[in-house]
Write a structure and sequence with these properties.
Blueprint lengths: L4 H28 L12 H13 L5 H22 L6 H4 L1 H20 L1 H7 L7
Helix pairs in contact: 1-2, 2-3, 3-5
Length: 130
């Protein structure tokens, strides 16, 4: 049995969440066993946001899914940059980047809607006419 593009996309999303839950559970188990200090890893959580964003953007997304994935990337990258002080980023001085990103996503969304029009039609429920 061959999966169509939408089924493949849904399967990939489910696989990603399954892997995230397994990794989280293993981390908690190792923490209980005294092998790993999970709280020391919290500042890497934005990297998970980057993975979620990439997962939403690849495959056969609609323009809304693509833009949502882009926001996961932006917020995850911004948080990671601030927590790790990459390029000298700090929360109190880097928030204008989010406003710029917001503007860029407003510009990109109609372009992506036009580019991903076929995916939009496939994702829409069929219209029944009487």
């Amino acid at each position: 049995m061959r999966m169509d593009s939408k089924q493949s996309y849904q399967w990939r999303k489910q696989l990603m969440w399954g892997l995230v839950l397994v990794a989280f559970g293993v981390g908690l188990l190792l923490d209980q066993m005294g092998k790993l200090d999970v709280l020391s890893l919290w500042h890497y959580l934005p990297l998970l946001m980057l993975v979620i964003g990439i997962n939403k953007m690849i495959g056969y997304p609609t323009a809304d899914e693509f833009t949502e994935g882009l926001w996961w990337l932006i917020i995850g990258g911004w948080l990671f940059g601030n927590l790790e002080h990459i390029f000298g980023m700090h929360f109190e001085s880097s928030w204008p980047y989010l406003i710029i990103a917001w503007g860029l996503t407003l510009i990109l969304k109609p372009l992506m809607r036009q580019r991903l029009a076929d995916n939009e039609r496939k994702a829409a429920p069929p219209v029944h006419r009487e």
